[in-house]
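Record type: ASSEMBLY
Status: queued
Input:
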Amino acid sequence: MPTLAHYLLVSGLLFSLGLAGVLLRRNILVIFMGLELMLNAANLSLVSFSRFNLMEGLPNYNAQVFVFFIITVAAAEVAVGLAIIVALFRAKQTIHVEDLDTLKF
Amino acid sequence: MQLALFCAFSILTLLFAAGVVFLRNPVSSAMCLVMSFIGLAALFVTLDAYFIAVVQVLVYAGAVMVLFLFIIMLLDLRAEKQRSVKLAAWVGGGIVIGGFVSCLAKVLASLPALQATKPPLLQPDINDVAAIGETLFRNYNLPFQIIGVLLLVSTIGVVVLSRKELK
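Status: finished
Output:
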């Protein structure tokens, strides 16, 4: 039977994979996908806590409402982020983060 | 049976998430991310969160990833040419992530409260859409309205950001 520790370990591994994508890849779209992986890892964590800490025999729905809000905010963030990436591509014709160096110190 | 299903879905999710990070072609990464989201929705179903699982598939796999694929097709990207792979960066990233996962495993093993299996629900088939709806509209009504305003603002922002310059 999977315990809470199993679910949290999966969530942690998913978060670290997303973190690896953000730190190590240089394609800005794949970096963005790593961000989405990290958000989903947090969602998994919240839903597993909601199921394992019961309130009067039912899952704790506050955490699931939180997940609903996180999914909504992530969708809005993806829309705006992709619009920024498209504007960046129009200006610079590149999607490699290493080519974006005009603000470099 | 439950453990086998949990292991199958979590391995599916983690394998495709690794595919997102390590594949060269951005379209392959996007497809792997879709499969990862579907695996995650299956994990939500094992946790009896049916509404969240369906919302995950509808919004994340259905809308967000379609948007990603539109943009990838719009920008007409090729697979990443092999630029010089900085070994130091990969080793450093590996150390950071390995450190994080080992600390997490140590904390998870040390807390006895986390070793508990799923407590049984009052009734086996719960109507969680109704329960989430009640919680959302009774206790979190103001954040819900603010989320509506946020979505409006982000839509307007997307239109403004994607305008072509008028010469």
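Annotation: Helices of chain A lie at 4-24, 28-52, 61-92.
Annotation: Residues 23 and 31 of chain A are 8 Å apart (CA to CA).
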